[in-house]
Amino acid sequence: MSENNPKPENSSGEDKDRPFFTAILTPHRSLGPNGFMILMLCFGAVSFVAGILFWSIGAWPVFGFFGLDIALLWLAFRMNYRSAKTHEEVVVSRSELIIRKVGPGNRFQEFRFNPFWVRLSVDRIEDEGVVKITLTSRGENVDLGNFLNPDDRTSFAGAIANALAVAKAG
Length: 170
Known about the structure:
Layout: E1 21-25, H1 33-56, H2 61-83, E2 87-92, E3 97-102, E4 108-113, E5 119-125, E6 129-137, E7 140-144, H3 150-169
Antiparallel strand pairs: 1-2, 2-3, 3-4, 5-6, 6-7
Helix pairs in contact: 1-2
């Protein structure tokens, strides 16, 4: 072939495996960092005032227990924020479906499926909407979006169903 001959645009196999659907599912946390700081300051102020009141009447050990309450509340929220870093990544291309579930401490599980062999199962309850999304392939089941609320789960179920239909259509 000479240099002047036109070359096909999609001659490389890289474009065929390029993902056309990507989703990152994250759990919702209603209390952000600023709200957490305000809550801790208010709770600390109330505990400090109550602790001073008990100290003034001679029950000084109670003051330490109020400090312990604040420390335990802070620890509980820190553990909650650590678990909030969990997420699920879903990537669909024409030849592969990749699901990566990332847990606390950056532990993860990765599942790889051929989209032609994946069966999508969506469980619905009339009053709530979608309550469970499961992908099944060759005897392996993977649940998706268990931490999502029913509205988000319903939206994601439609999106992943469309992505799988596109992948199966080629």
